[in-house]
Amino acid sequence: MELESSIAPKLRRPDRRPKHTPGSYQPPYPSFSARFGDEVDAVVMASFGVQSRDADDPRAAAALGEMREARSAHDGPGSVQRARYIDAQGYTTTIDTAYWSDPRAFERWFASVGAAWLDPDRVEDGVGRFLELVTPDLERFETIFSASDRPEGVAEVGTEMSGMIEEHAYWGSMRDRLPLAQTDPLWPSGELVVTGSGRVRDVRLHGNACLIRSGQDITDTGDRERDLYLSTVEPPLRAGMDFLRDEGGSIGCYDNRFMVVLDEDDQPTDRTFGMSWWRDMAALEDWAASHPTHVEIFGAAMRHLSSFGPETRLRLFHEVTVPTDVQQRFTYVGCHDETGLLRAR
Description:
The chain is of the alpha+beta class and 345 residues long. The protein contains six helices and 14 strands. A hairpin with a 5-residue loop joins strand 3 and strand 4.
């Protein structure tokens, strides 16, 4: 099995810290990472959310229609995925997660149409809108995919996928894939800042907070694999996601959402993802390596994959981002006090 590093050649550092696995390690199954062209220095990951107590509120539907129209404007995103969940307070939240490979194009688009969508004078009581924005340079995020033929998320604004990578399927591999972690421990730095009052509030986390978006896709599975996934993998996954949503603050998780991806008609699909913010990568690693909720998720997933081997049609991916304090911005307009990163207070 010929392997390459998850880290693109231009981002590799000869003085890197030792990897978390010996050089003779051979991963048990193939995985891949996104690649970006030489002209790309940073990307934009922007989540535009609409929140309403009533899932059928026509005002929320109108806001979502407005966002769908806005994202098709000049300099709009190269990739968008819409997903939905119900938060712990019972509010239905629908989010368009949009990606740009050119931050300058995003700034032009946002100045032209995006900023108006957050105008507090246009937000009606009972319907909240928010923007959760990160703009990491290439050294500050990593991706992994179980298959190379269906990119998701930020990979959709990349140029290609890597060959089979070596840094996966062992504890510490997430950090080994993150380019900046070759030389930086990525400890949290600075202070969390909340500004504004009333209808409009802004949050900026400290530097090196960690975002993970981790997805599952059972679209291509046959009946047997689908039934097994839904009966043995998804229950512990949902339980773990609920734990992070409700009790994650005790272990350094600021916020967690478990979302169902929607199609172009805003109907549920067979794709889901968890999206959570952490104090730092170490807090995420600790949960992944030893907390009972993730140990159960990991065990169920490994049993599923080993049952089907190369015949599995379950597709998995994640992207992990560790931005600086100035590479992030969270704005909430008319949202309740426990929305998103407002909880991090």
